[in-house]
Each structure stands twice: as structure tokens, then as C-alpha cells.
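Notes to self after the Tuesday call (sharing in case useful).
The group wants a holo model before anyone commits to mutagenesis around the pocket. I volunteered. Ligand is guanosine-5'-diphosphate. Logging inputs and output together so the record is complete.
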Amino acid sequence: MILSIIMLGDSTVGKSSLLKRYTEDAFLENINQTVGVDFYVHFLEVEPGVRIKLQFWDTAGQERFRSVTRSYYRNSVGGLLVFDVTNRASFDHVKDWHDEVCERVVPHRVMFTLLGHKSDCDADDHSERVISREEAEKLASRMGMPYVEASAKTGNNVQEAFDVLAKTTIIKIFFFPLKETDSSYTY
Ligand code: GDP
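Result:
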């Protein structure tokens, strides 16, 4: 089974860094900026002997690339909505990214997880964090999705965050399989 997952969120929230940490267990302070769409693959063993291939579309957050990324929404069954806990604008835009995808795919087809990123920034004195866990949890609950926090820099909770995303997506596929008429599907 192949699950296609799209990474969503403003530029610089750390989407590419999260994927690099998850797929290669590495972190680059000056990671190349994504132009258009990048592609990553990771195999997840859901139980002994059962492997699922996750393929990730990493989009550029800039408005001017949206026309490129739109064509990838159609094949996605999972979506990671990423914001930066030190950047309120990126949090405010989560709803826009969500709407952007929902307007273009069959309703409820993409299962989302909300991820508050750069959680390392409140390790010492909380001075850099502007979005509290409580505020983010409220938004996630209003939007009907799980909320997780992670840091690609330290690696903290990254594996767990992608596990939540994959499991939410897999559960949806088993309980709400698509109709055959939905021709753009990949699993
Ligand atoms: P993208 O545009 O959303 O793909 O973001 P990038 O992955 O290119 O990261 C943008 C910037 O955030 C880079 O300077 C990274 O070094 C930094 N960054 C990424 N992940 C983290 C993190 O977990 N913690 C902190 N403090 N910075 C991070």
C-alpha cells in the first residue's frame, strides 16, 4: 500500500526539515529552500512484516507556487498542517491551507494532523514561543484533527508525529474506503 501525504504550511515553518529528520534522521541549519515540490519516501512497519510506503510531497509555501502544488492535492490521502510555534502568522494561516486543500478534493478524503513545530524554542524560558499548546489544541479540536508538537532540530517527537499522521490516514482508509469512481486515487 502506498500513502500519498502532502506537507502544508507557510514558508520557513520547517516542512523540509521535518521530512529530512524523519526520512534521514538529519538536520541541516541551512536547508535548501524548496522550489515548487520535493518528493520524499519512507517505509513504515505498521506491524511485524507489514510495511507501508509513505510518499511525501513537500510544497513551497510561497503564494506563487500554489498553482504547482495544487495538482498534487488530488492524490493525497494524508495532510500534515505545519505551523511554527514562534510565528503567529503561520498559525493564523493554518485554516487557509486547510481550506485550500478541502476546496479541491472530495470532502473528508484527506486526513489532517496539525503539527506545532520548533518546540525546542521553549526549552529554556518560553520566551520565543507565541502559540501555546492549549491554543493550538483548541484549533485542532475545532477542525477535528489530532495535534502534535515536534522539533526537527532536536528530533524530539518527530517519529511520533508522523506515526499519528500515518495511523489517522490508515484508519480512514479502512473505515471509509473510496468509491471506484474516484479515479485519481493511488492505493
Ligand atoms: P520550510 O520552508 O517550511 O520547508 O522550512 P525549512 O525546513 O526550510 O526550515 C526553515 C528554517 O527553520 C531553517 O532555517 C531551519 O534551520 C529552521 N528550522 C527547521 N526546523 C527547526 C526546528 O525544529 N527548530 C528550530 N529552532 N529551527 C528549525
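Two things stood out.
Residues 2-178 form a domain with the Rossmann fold fold (CATH 3.40.50.300).
The CA atoms of residues 51 and 129 lie 37 Å apart.
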